[in-house]
Amino acid sequence: MLPDNVANLSLAELSAYQHRQGPGLAQKQARAMREVRAYFKYSRVLELKI
Protein backbone atom coordinates (compact mmCIF):
# COMPACT_ATOMS: atom_id res chain seq x y z
CA MET A 1 0.00 0.00 0.00
CA LEU A 2 1.35 3.41 -0.91
CA PRO A 3 1.19 6.45 1.37
CA ASP A 4 -1.50 9.10 0.81
CA ASN A 5 1.05 11.70 -0.34
CA VAL A 6 2.63 9.42 -2.96
CA ALA A 7 2.21 12.06 -5.69
CA ASN A 8 4.43 14.45 -3.72
CA LEU A 9 7.24 11.97 -3.05
CA SER A 10 10.48 11.92 -4.97
CA LEU A 11 11.68 8.64 -6.42
CA ALA A 12 14.26 8.29 -3.63
CA GLU A 13 11.63 8.90 -0.93
CA LEU A 14 9.28 6.38 -2.53
CA SER A 15 12.07 3.82 -2.76
CA ALA A 16 12.96 4.37 0.91
CA TYR A 17 9.30 3.99 1.89
CA GLN A 18 8.97 0.73 -0.05
CA HIS A 19 12.19 -0.56 1.50
CA ARG A 20 10.85 0.13 5.00
CA GLN A 21 7.61 -1.71 4.16
CA GLY A 22 9.33 -4.75 2.71
CA PRO A 23 13.13 -4.87 2.69
CA GLY A 24 13.23 -7.57 0.01
CA LEU A 25 10.85 -5.72 -2.29
CA ALA A 26 13.52 -3.73 -4.11
CA GLN A 27 15.49 -6.89 -4.85
CA LYS A 28 12.34 -8.65 -6.11
CA GLN A 29 11.46 -5.71 -8.34
CA ALA A 30 15.00 -5.50 -9.73
CA ARG A 31 15.02 -9.24 -10.46
CA ALA A 32 11.62 -9.00 -12.15
CA MET A 33 12.81 -6.13 -14.35
CA ARG A 34 15.93 -8.07 -15.37
CA GLU A 35 13.75 -11.07 -16.26
CA VAL A 36 11.37 -8.91 -18.31
CA ARG A 37 14.24 -7.29 -20.22
CA ALA A 38 15.82 -10.69 -20.87
CA TYR A 39 12.50 -12.10 -22.09
CA PHE A 40 11.96 -9.26 -24.56
CA LYS A 41 15.53 -9.48 -25.84
CA TYR A 42 15.07 -13.22 -26.32
CA SER A 43 11.70 -12.80 -28.06
CA ARG A 44 13.21 -10.21 -30.44
CA VAL A 45 16.00 -12.63 -31.32
CA LEU A 46 13.44 -15.34 -32.04
CA GLU A 47 11.42 -12.97 -34.24
CA LEU A 48 14.51 -12.09 -36.26
CA LYS A 49 15.31 -15.76 -36.90
CA ILE A 50 11.83 -16.57 -38.19
Please provide a written account of the structure.
The protein has 50 residues and is mainly alpha-helical. 72% of the residues lie in helices and 0% in strands. The protein has two helices and no strands. The longest helix is centred in the C-terminal third of the chain and has 25 residues. The chain is elongated, with a radius of gyration of 16 Å. The N and C termini lie far apart (43 Å). 0% of the residues are buried. The mean pLDDT is 78.
State the order of secondary-structure elements, H for helix, E for strand. Answer: HH
Spans with pLDDT under 50 lasting ≥5 residues?
Answer: none
**Rounded radius of gyration (Å):** 16 Å
Quaternary structure annotation: single chain
Give the strand tally. 0
Question: In one word, what is the shape?
Answer: elongated
Proportion of β residues? under 5%
Distance between the termini: 43 Å
Number of helices: 2
The secondary-structure class comes to mainly alpha
Residue share in helix: over 70%
Give the overall pLDDT as a whole number.
78
Largest sheet, strands/sense/barrel: none
Question: What descriptive keywords fit this protein?
Answer:
50 residues, 72% helix
Q: What's the gist of this structure?
A:
By secondary structure, the protein is mainly α. The protein has 2 helices and no strands.
SSE blueprint and pairings:
Layout: H1 11-21, H2 25-49
